[in-house]
Design brief:
Elements (H helix, E strand, L loop, with lengths): L1 H63 L9 H17 L4 H16 L3 H13 L4 H17 L3 H7 L9 H14 L3 H13 L8 H9 L11 H10 L8 H10 L1
Helix pairs in contact: 1-2, 1-3, 1-11, 2-3, 3-4, 4-5, 5-6, 5-7, 5-10, 7-8, 8-9
């Protein structure tokens, strides 16, 4: 009898526990299931969004990455700008949108609108780009600022630590800026550091020529500022990355 009483008490205790905790238990189970299915739904949404952004970016590259501005039709340019604007509006945090803005900046430079180019590059910086993209943006924006003779701003953009494989390009750009400022001694120093910073696989014959032209910085003839600025502007927005790079980065994110 004692055993029966103990079992009845256990059953009663379980019933009481469910009466007191059953609701919270059910709620916990529901929340857990919602979290699981919600995460799966989020993953599907993220995949769909990435695929849409990728598709738009491919359309952009087909429209305006065919060649220089003078080889593109007005329809190609209009289509490219429309797609880029859609990417920026709908996927501002994606690498695809950041690359789209880089292409818009390039078009703006080729159209002679450096303010518009700077605006596109600023937009990328404001939308948390991946560090490799951010380093390229800084370099391109520095070139544009230098072309606008805003040398202090240009040098400030290059004041970045640990630029990795871009070290040589950053130093070369410093050299170009100092040369345009009429400071051949500092330009020579920057070009020398740029040569030392070349990584395996890079080939920079133009940099070598710049350095050789300044072997004797005190007697060097400083290039015409207008020519220097034009050179920097024309080189300001090479994206250095392909559509596959963007797809890899967004897919990994």
């Amino acid at each position: 009898m004692a055993s029966d009483t103990t079992e009845e008490e256990q059953v009663e205790a379980i019933k009481n526990w469910f009466e007191q905790n059953g609701t919270s238990l059910i709620v916990g189970i529901v929340v857990s299931l919602a979290a699981v299915f919600g995460y799966q739904s989020w993953q599907k949404t993220e995949l769909a969004e990435t695929e849409k952004a990728s598709s738009l970016y491919m359309g952009l590259t087909e429209a305006i990455v065919a060649g220089p501005l003078d080889t593109l039709s007005s329809q190609q340019i209009s289509t490219g700008k429309f797609i880029a604007a859609e990417l920026k509006a709908d996927f501002p945090a994606s690498t695809y949108a950041h690359f789209a803005a880089l292409h818009l900046a390039k078009l703006a430079v080729e159209e002679g609108d450096l303010d518009a180019a700077a605006s596109e590059l600023d937009w990328i910086g404001e939308n948390n780009p991946e560090r490799p993209v951010g380093l390229i943006v800084n370099l391109r924006l520095a070139k544009i600022k230098a072309a606008q003779e805003d040398y202090d701003a240009a040098l400030g953009l290059l004041n970045v630590e640990d630029v990795g494989a871009h070290a040589s390009s950053y130093q070369e750009q410093r050299g170009d800026i100092y040369l345009a400022m009429g400071k051949p001694d500092k330009a020579h120093e920057a070009y020398k550091l740029a040569m030392e910073g070349i990584v395996e696989g890079q080939n920079k014959p133009v940099l070598q020529m710049k350095l050789e032209d300044l072997i004797d910085p005190q007697n060097a003839t400083v290039m015409n500022k207008g020519a220097a600025n034009e050179s920097m502007a024309s080189d300001a927005t090479e994206t250095d990355m392909s559509a596959s790079d963007a797809q890899t980065k967004d897919g990994a994110g």
